[in-house]
Each structure stands twice: as structure tokens, then as C-alpha cells.
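Problem 12. The chain below contains 333 residues. Write out its predicted structure in C-alpha cell notation.
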Amino acid sequence: MHRSHVSEGIKHELTAMTKGLGIRKFVKGKDEELWLKIWNEAFEDYEDEDFRPQTMKDMEIREKDPNFDPQGMFIAQMNAKPVGMVNAFVDKKREEKKGFIHNLCVLPEFRRKGIGRKLANKALQSLKERGMETAEAEWVRGDKPACKFFDSMGFSLIRIQSDMRTELDKIPSGIGEYEGLKIRLMEKNLDDIKLLNRLVNETFKEHFDFRPETVEETRYWVMEKPWTDIAEYYFGYVDNEAVGFVGVGIDSKFVKHTGIKRGWINTIGVLKPLRRKGVGTALILHGNRVLKSKGMTETYLGVDDSNPTKAIELYKKTGFKIVHKYLTYLKKT
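Solution.
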């Protein structure tokens, strides 16, 4: 049979399976509970032990994000029953004409019916209509069917990230950490928020997908604490000059839901002149000690495998091991 005939056959089959499907925009102030219901049902089996249900409190915090924009949020319904969703996100502060596809998911009983493909196409269309030339699908778990899905839609793999974990029963010392590094807890005042903002922008400017963070955005992460209800930041000083920082977090709801006493290294950065001198090592070890003091038994962090600072080697040195791979895909709209 000719290839075009096969393609037409698949197209007709998918059309038949998605008969009665409609995709509509998310309505802020009305659809939050529905959005959470879809997210929780769809991602529970996607993320295995990493999952915990999202709550209205989580949604309220997300909507306080300075960049929250429901314009690209869509809900799929089959004969009026919600079956999936997607967020076609445009970062309005980014000069590059690249949008992002977040939260693409379909309820388990409605998968393999072409609904995910229609949601992805809707997201691509939405991004294109808003002037985006490319679309990036971030953090796709490497061992999940979503990888084949994005491959089949013409996305190209452009980046690989690692989730890493270390146990906190024995935190190493004497492994090359900077001697005499002074570390202090960040205060939640404007001066320290501005200091963190400056350090974040300086230390991450070489990183993939970087764009300068505003003070308002930094304040949001510090004060609203999305993803982790317990969050602390620490500055590292050499000769009374701030040269780096580390942020740690604990999601108490995750700990309660899973029984896993896991904390996170949410962020870490060291100014370029002080890299490879043990400052990062000292900050990581400090972060782990803080999490252990709060009752955690393991620490997770995420890292870009192609990070120009070779951060993955620092994490391995301090005891972290790779547990999952995540992939980033890109496609022209």
C-alpha cells in the first residue's frame, strides 16, 4: 500500500477516535479546580514516586507568579467530559521568539486516541499566533512514552537533564570545600532579595534558556515559595563579598503523601572567578546539612548535563547519583 494511503488511514482512524472532542480555553476564576483534577489524575502514573496531588493552595500560589498568563491554557473535553490539558506558555520578558509547552497530559483511559496530538497542535497554533517561532517541550521524563510522542510530532531533542539524589545519613567533609567560607541565612528584605537577584543573573547568564530575572520574580520565589512550602536561601562570602548562594526547600505535602523525607537543592550559583575553588562544594554540603537538620533523609536536585560550569561533576563529588533523565525537545511552529 502506498505510504500516503497509510497516512490517510491513520488520520481517519484518529478523527473517528476523537469525534466529540472539543478544546477550549481555561477560564481564570472558574477552572482552577478542574485544571487540578486533570493534572492530578493524569500525572499520578506519569511520575511514579515523585508525585503528590496538587491543591488549590498550590494553584493560588502559581497564579501569583508575575508571569502567570492563562492565555495559552487549554482544556480538552470529550462529549463534555474533561480528558486532558496543555499550557502553551509565552515568556513575555524573553527576547527570543520561543514559547514553551507545559503540562501536556491526557487522562489514562483516554490515551492513544489522538487527544494528546490535538492538544499539542493546539499549543503550537497558539504559540504561533502570538509570534513564537519555535516551541520547547521541557523536562520530558526519559523513560516515558512522551518521548516517542514528541519524536513522532517532529520535535528534535536538544537537551538532556538529570535528576540526582544523595542520602543524608553521612554527609562528606574534607572533599575540597573552600575553607573559611562564611555562610549566612538570607533575610527576607528588599536588600537581600536584590542581592540574590544580582547573583542569580550573574551566575546563570551562560546557562541554557537564560534570560535576566527581575527583582519581582526573585521576590516571588523567595516570598511565595512555589513547589516547596519550606524554603531558605544562604549566601556564601569571601573577604566580606557575596560570591555565591544556595537555596534549599522541603515540600511538606510531598513528605506527608509519600512518606519520603526528601528535600531539594532548589538552586545554587557561584560567581565565575570563584568557581573550582571549593565554594560550590561548601554551599552544597551546607544545604545538605540544613535539610538533614530539618529531618530529611535524602536530597534531590536537577542539573543540565551540558551546564557550562560542569556542575554535574560537582554534584557527583558531593555524593549525588543520577536517578532519572529528562529531555528537552524543540520544534518550529
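Discussion. The CA atoms of residues 199 and 244 lie 7 Å apart. Students who got a different answer should revisit the alignment rule from Section 12.3.
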